[in-house]
Design a protein that fits this description.
Elements (H helix, E strand, L loop, with lengths): L1 H5 L5 E8 L2 E10 L4 E5 L6 E3 L1 H8 L4 E4 L1
Antiparallel strand pairs: 1-2, 1-5, 2-3, 3-4
């Protein structure tokens, strides 16, 4: 989440490890004006979360930033 806050408004691509060789690609973004984090798996539509909501749902999962 700190990487998103360092580059506000910039979409970042992350891989979410699902186990074994499986992973899911997510595009994450931070909106500093709304103080919300966006998560998308299809580029166009974001689901928006507060920091607390995002951590409650996704804390402890293995994320890896893709470049």
């Amino acid at each position: 989440m700190e990487n998103l806050r360092k580059e506000p408004g910039m979409e970042q691509q992350y891989a979410l490890h699902l186990g074994g060789f499986l992973r899911s690609t997510h595009w994450l973004i931070y909106d500093p004006e709304k103080d919300l984090y966006g998560d998308s798996m299809d580029w166009d539509e974001y689901a928006w979360f507060t920091r607390k909501e995002f951590l409650e749902m996704r804390a402890g999962w293995w994320w890896c930033r893709e470049h």
